[in-house]
Amino acid sequence: MSKERLIIFDTTLRDGEQSPGATMDQDEKLRIAKALERMKVDVIEAGFAIASQGDFLSVKAIADTVRESTICSLARAKASDIDRAAEALAGAESGRIHTFLATSPIHMQHKLRLEPDQVVEHAVAAVKHARNHMGDVEFSCEDAGRSELDFLCRIIEAVIDAGATTINIPDTVGYAIPEQYGHTIGQLLARIPNADKAVFSVHCHNDLGLAVANSLAAVQAGARQVECTINGLGERAGNASLEEIVMAVRTRQDLFNVDTGINAKEIVPTSKMVSQITGFPVQPNKAIVGANAFAHESGIHQDGVLKHRETYEIMSAEDVGWHTNRMVLGKHSGRAAFRARLDELGITFASEAAMNEAFQRFKDLADKKHEVFDEDLQALVSDTKKAAEEERFKLVLLEATARTGETPEARIVLAIDGQEREATSTGAGPVDAAFKAIEMLAESHSILQLYSVNAITAGTDSQGEVTVRLEKGGRIVNGHGADVDIITASAKAYLNALNHFAAGLERAHPQAADV
């Protein structure tokens, strides 16, 4: 018996970006979108077009570039939002408008301040307006998990009649339990007369650690689209993890009468890219994409795997992209090989000069470490593109000393608005001293919320990748830096965050779009 298609709707670039500090620039979003396209994701929610000019331009760039996936933009149930989304999606090969409205009593009463009849009226009007722009329209019942079943049946029937082609039933606050959530989906499909005219979708949050379990229960009850993110990124505790949904369905074909079109070999490379760009490390014991996901410490397990892999492994590491993305370059690699690998990774440059700058950085890195892997290239490209931007703060010189029994010290020379300034400071360690020296010059008065260090690849010659999260006046920004010297990488990350503050990078959310 043939399997039905489970549509994978990725919202890493929209809901995932709502994680505090996870803001991505247009180039980074485009890189991730291209990776999702290589993975054969069915629908990419590229952003919330009306949220800001930056969001609009990012959605437009992705719609104009990605050809193999449907590109979606979120919009509140307002004509202005829907028009802006349609404008951003104009160049898409396949576009979708995703509009939403709250349906739970608590939201209707306290947030919308509308009666149920008015909510239905607004929802129908929004869907009809969206259908005037394009044929693919998704409607979400925000906070469906706490909505009354009879009202859900009523509003969903009405928006399907109005032209909605996908109906999303989100567990907005992560409140659902699998058995109960699956039952809700089953009841909606059974009770709504025109349910067969739309695809039913689920969007689950992980506040109780049940996002994937709830999503899978919904699939078994008849949902045929799952909204998810790479690495489970997202608001609060995150969303259902794409990699876990895809591999659960694929591994348990005895239980699921569906399968996806995902190219699973792209899962790990994409996971690493998203982690590097957002600065959110993947925990080692994370399913599928964690460093320990296919590691075996127990002697009994090791013996079993050596004799027959399936004794302790239900999936192949190679099937999800482990050890398949290691195109090794070195100091003898030429420009053609470098360019070819960047093309395979979906990385492009605006000019030949930018390409030459990246190649020179690659050669410098290859002189410092024997082998350069894909992960190194991703970090190198990020650093190259940041360096090409207008930066208020630039690192000119860093000297750091640390001796046993003595107080560490750092000397920093920065170019601030083109003028070189110098400061020296001591600290609890060389990184602490470097940050204090930077602050003496920058006087940002920001608060360090996160300092995270990860090795990009294995080995003591690995580049260190540092994420710094700063808060100032309620604004949160992430800074990233990579270098074989961890203190230099740390200084780069701190300065990158300060440059985000200086550039005024922020996103305006007209409404908490946590559907």
How many DSSP E strands?
16
Distance between the termini: 34 Å
**Low-confidence parts:** 296-306, 506-512
Residue-averaged pLDDT, rounded? 88
Order of strands, widest sheet: 2-3-4-5-6-7-8-9
Strand content: 15-25%
Question: Can you put this structure into words, describing what you see?
Answer:
Keywords: Acyltransferase, Amino-acid biosynthesis, Branched-chain amino acid biosynthesis, Cytoplasm, Leucine biosynthesis, Manganese, Metal-binding, Transferase. GO terms for molecular function: 2-isopropylmalate synthase activity. Homodimer. It is a single chain. With 515 residues, the chain is an alpha/beta fold. The strands form four sheets. The protein has an eight-stranded parallel barrel, surrounded by eight helices. A three-stranded antiparallel β-sheet has the order 11-12-13. A three-stranded antiparallel β-sheet has the order 14-15-16. The longest helix has 18 residues, at 486-503. It has helices at residues 26-38, 53-65, 79-88, 105-112, 116-131, 149-162, 178-191, 211-221, 242-251, 267-278, 299-307, 335-344, 352-368, 374-388, 430-442, 486-503, and strands spanning 4-5, 7-10, 43-47, 70-76, 95-102, 137-142, 166-171, 199-204, 225-228, 258-259, 393-401, 409-416, 419-426, 447-455, 464-472, 475-483. It starts with a strand and ends in a 12-residue tail after the last helix. Helix 1 packs antiparallel against helix 10 (267-278), helix 5 (116-131) packs parallel to helix 6 and helix 10 (267-278) runs parallel beside helix 14. It has 16 helices and 16 strands.
